TrEMBL record, chain A:
Sequence similarity: Belongs to the GatC family.
Listed name of the protein: Aspartyl/glutamyl-tRNA(Asn/Gln) amidotransferase subunit C
NADP in keyword set: no
Organism: Micromonospora profundi
Recorded name of the encoding gene: gatC
Reactions catalysed: L-aspartyl-tRNA(Asn) + L-glutamine + ATP + H2O = L-asparaginyl-tRNA(Asn) + L-glutamate + ADP + phosphate + 2 H(+); L-glutamyl-tRNA(Gln) + L-glutamine + ATP + H2O = L-glutaminyl-tRNA(Gln) + L-glutamate + ADP + phosphate + H(+)
Amino acid sequence: MAAISREEVAHLARLSRLAVTEEELDTFAGQLDVILQAVAQVGEVAAADIPPTSHSVPLTNIFREDVVTPCLTPQEALSGAPDAEDQRFRVPRILSEDVAS
Amino acid sequence: MSDLTRMTAAEIAALVAGGETSAVEVTRAHLDRIAAVDDRVHAFLHVDTDGALDAARAVDERRAAGEELGPLAGVPVAVKDVLATRGVPTTVGSKILEGWRPPYDATIVQRLREAGTVMLGKTNMDEFAMGSSTEYSAYGPTHNPWDLSRIPGGSGGGSAAALAAYEAPLAIGSDTGGSIRQPGAVTGTVGVKPTYGGTSRYGLVAFSSSLDTPGPCARTVLDAALLHQVIAGHDPRDSTSIPQPVPDVVAAAKLGATGDLTGVRLGIVSEFVGEGAEPGVMAAFREAVDALAKLGAEIVDVSCPTFVHALPAYYLIAPSECSSNLARFDGVRFGLRVGDDGNRSLEEVMSLTREAGFGPEVKRRIMIGTYALSSGYYDAYYGQAQKVRTLITRDFTAAFERVDALISPTTPSVAFPIGARTADPYQMYLADLFTIPTNLYGGPGISVPCGLSEGLPVGLQVMAPTMADDRMYRVAAALESAVGTFTPPAL
């Protein structure tokens, strides 16, 4: 049985903000199915009472000295932006028209 | 002067320090070599000719002024395009960052500059460091200098190929699941994944933050150690950076080079010497093990039964972290923006931008990660993978109570032909079978050339406990002293 359907892949693409094509959906559905079936092997490991590891370095609450150091100028920070205005990143509209009106 | 491009970094640094050559002369020799061969190898995405010559001139001026130079001053280095370089294009092998010139340097790049090394340019890589062959670069594949029809490994195939093609004596890579060690193995060069937290991730474009580890690449173990010493050490800008002194890897490499491993206990990982590796790889590995035994090492077999689950656990953990990390590529702050016609919404523009900017492997991993982190699947996939990570760590800890270091072949196969695995993403993943456990555990690993199979290089991997990077350098240098280095056919 397939681990994942074409419809589920389309849903994942939407969640991932990827405007995939119909052709890509066909390819990805098969490939993701192979990958997910393979990685699902982790489920066979008996680990019910094992604590999870999120990170290998046992460091918590890392602080550094609260001293002022040089930082980027607004021009530098905006230098790679696709669009900028008044020292801000300019974005396409974020509200739909019926909400905005 | 004999060919400067054939020298080790240590030799070049000594000549520059002694005034027998200049940093400019060294840099020009390498730029000439790049001009002569890189149209065939394609190790570089960007060659910074002017920046390199400026940096070299600065070293020569400092020397002329009588200033003390660092141990690698005047030595050229190639930097994987995953590290931010101020004013120099940084693409991560992706169209989504095409043309981006970072306004700052990664900590490692800053340390390279302060040490007086000369950055030649940025090397090719699988897009966002996701891949094992450099074929997933948006800018075309890199070719293995040993056989131009074969892959140079990945994701850091550009850095490894630059070394093997004598375009650079030193290079920087990043290793999330094997991206330094596996290219090292298949190009006959030395690749080091330091202890996680031993090298700064500040300015490294994030793929999987709990695994990403920048590290040194070189043609000799001593050169790798010299570069390691320059780039490693605590960085307050990286909250996962370990606030401890760097192990003395240079001293360890020099000790190893004496060829004496008396009193060193090495464990062969039983799970990695079965049918998983090609016969030719196993033959070269077995010969290398015999050589290590002749140097005085005690060799035992060590079973690490959970290592066989490392690959599936990794391909849940790394994509999960990537799906989160790559959310920052939204067409707002840097890089590409597609479809902003004044009518489309932010979300539509974001989706069109990411669709156009990311290649297929990056899309696959973002979607796998999104799936594994979804409510309803989280416990069965991501949560379970994190538990397996604990078990793998326990296997390492138990092994290091019995032995000083673990050894295995670095890769299951020699370099495969370009195009052989791109149609089957999971086959590509298998190239990292032996390197991934170390990333999940967080300890250091090194790949050192140990022989040839079918005329192609085979690497031996040494894995050591966390913050015992010096131990693996000693073993690797000893092996190198016994088997020598390997030179590819002339290009």
